[in-house]
Amino acid sequence: MKRGLILNLLSNVMFFISGYALHYFLGNTMPPAAYGIVGTIITVLDFEYMFVSNGARQSLASQISRRRYDIRDVIAKTTAFQLLVIAIFFCINFFGAPLFGTILGDDSLDFYFRVAAGLIVVNGLQVILLGINDGLQRFGTSALLSTVYPIAKLGVIPLIIFVFRDDPVLGVEVGFILAVAFTILLGCTLLAAANHAPFRERRADRIPFREVAKHTLSFSFFFIMVSLVLSMDTLVVKATVRPAAMAGYYTGAMNFGKIAYYLLQAFATVSLPVLAKLIGERRRTDAVQRMQEFVMLAFTFILPICVIISTSSSSLLAAFYSADFRVAAPALSMLTFSNFFMGMTVLLNMALNSFGSSRFSDALSIVSLVVTIPLFIAAATYGGISAIALASMACTGLAMLATLLRVRATAGAPISRRSWIVLGANVVLAALSAAVFHLAPTDNLLILAVLYAALYGVYLGVALIAKIGPFADLRNLKALFKRG
């Protein structure tokens, strides 16, 4: 479990490094309005990826881990249902492109949304490979594929420089499509070369197609809610906030705000098959203990990143982009916690599904769909980008709190005593970090990186000396590093 978690975290770190290198290039070579168009296209795709990607991947991982049905039958029927979903969203993007342009107030978006339809196809096929590897608990292969993809996306830079100099937005889309296609080819090669005993196991039970559809759609519907809360605000800003440059500034803030969510995705990726396997083996007590460990590790290693970014938002945006982006600093301070809250909500809902409870996730999704969109529109209209970021943080905070209460009632307390102590340590870190960036503000990216490393290192050093959280048992810590 811990080895898989470390590998997936490392792959997400590479995702950030590659992604921010790309956004640094785009943000510094394109005017804010054009950069806002790229952010709008990516935001819409993020929304559709939640439906096309997470449903099939999580459903496959859960069903394969439980070993209840014949694995080949599960893969075949899930792939068939995934192809149906891909076809629907391809048609929405390709034939509905003019409507997107009208709604978002930019007719130039029509062509780009038609090209983006190709991304839906390749991404939808890629996650089938990821779901199979997750279900087989081949987390190393999943991490490898998740690492190769963002590195391959850096091919966008030479494409824009040498091929799509006059149309960089198209260059971004073509580069993304080629990157996913290469990752699929590599994934198929690795899967074909591996020797998997579970594939040779033949089980009499065949999974009903309606169960595949129900299970996949339940995950998909939940991740649609996640996407709406984390991505719809960017679209609302694009459509309602003026001047148009504000969409670019908000895109810059969102890029850094999502760090916590993407890191916590590694926890969700590993936790679902691990907990589902324990539940399938009727080891409920062990499953609860593992759930508490996931939460404690998230509080120990991911929450401090949010704290440091939130207290240094103005310096970060000025150093990475330009001084003009400081206007989005309050938004970034709130968005980083909004994304952490939503990442924890996803992690806890994966735990609920492992324990056999999915109705709460469905109910949470419905309530969020009803509340989020009108709240975001009102916040952006009357308060601008800072108000909509506050609305996002409020929504995700309430969703996390509701899920915590539900998990406690269904499975057991997700937050252990060690986790509460870690939360207290993060409060102290917040005070220290705020003081450092108040006394020593900087717009130099290198100096900022040094300050980040120093603050995070001091935090981990104190936690180690004080034996806080996972550092309380050094034997387990040594085993973790050994496996890593």
UniProtKB/TrEMBL annotation:
The keyword Transmembrane helix applies. GO terms for cellular component: plasma membrane. It comes from the Bacteria. It is found in: Cell membrane. The keyword Magnesium does not apply. Keywords: Cell membrane, Membrane, Transmembrane, Transmembrane helix. It holds the Pfam family Polysacc_synt_3. It is a multi-pass membrane protein. One of its GO terms (molecular function) is antiporter activity. Coiled coil: none annotated. The chain crosses the membrane at residues 7-26, 32-53, 74-99, 111-132, 144-164, 176-195, 216-239, 259-276, 297-321, 327-351, 363-382, 388-407, 419-439, 445-466. Its main location: membrane. PANTHER family: O-ANTIGEN TRANSPORTER-RELATED, PST FAMILY PREDICTED COLANIC ACID TRANSPORTER. This is Polysaccharide biosynthesis protein. It comes from Bifidobacterium goeldii.
